[in-house]
Amino acid sequence: MYTSCSETEEKKPVADGIELDDDYYEFQTFDMADFGIDGYISLPDETANIGASTKPEVMQIESHLWQIDVGLNFTLHIEDMANLTDIIKEEKKDLASKKFFKVKYLVDKPDMIIYERTLVVSGTDKASKTVGKEHKSYHVFGQRKVNGIMYALESQEEGYNKTIIELMAKSIRSFKGKKSS
Asked: Which tens digits make up the pLDDT trace of 16-66?
């Protein structure tokens, strides 16, 4: 039996069901220059099937903090961290200090973490049946250096489902400075 190259191409390794590939077919390149960042980020477009609008909305919350909304199901925060390094290490320390959540790293790289966060279930025998209900969410946190400035990029505190987090991880990986002409 003969197969074409496209049928035998391998995808990048999957870590705990998280797929990190370089296929940006369902993304649009977004210029951040109007918001004070001399760079580009790829964001999901309407074909990504996440209820995304065709036009991303960007709000500069503070001089060093932006929020990008693409529809109702995609909110990404970008924070200017100046010249700080090891932002991932600091985020992991912060996560370890939160005793109400159990964290399982699905992707653990020097420039990005993707993790599953589960609310720690602890109730008493006399508590109502609604106490101790397990709640699971997925989160992404990354760092990217753009034009000499380190940025932290992360999902919202409440998290999302795995599919949205995969899209956010791809957006984070795409965040780059403009090339000099």
From this structure: 566 666 778 889 999 999 999 999 999 998 777 676 566 889 999 999 999
Q: Which two tokens stand for residue 77?
A: 């925060």
- What is the residue whose two structure tokens read 């980020």? 41
Alpha-carbon span 11 to 18, nearest angstrom = 12
pTM for this entry: 0.81
Buried-state track 24-57, b at ≥16 Cβ within 10 A, e below 16 = bebbbebebeeeebebbbbbbbeebebebeeebe
Between CA 23 and CA 130 the distance in angstroms is 42
Nearest to 56 by CA among 82, 36, 34: 34
CATH architecture of 15-177: 3-Layer(aba) Sandwich (3.40)
Domain spans in the chain, listed from the N-terminal domain onward: 15-177
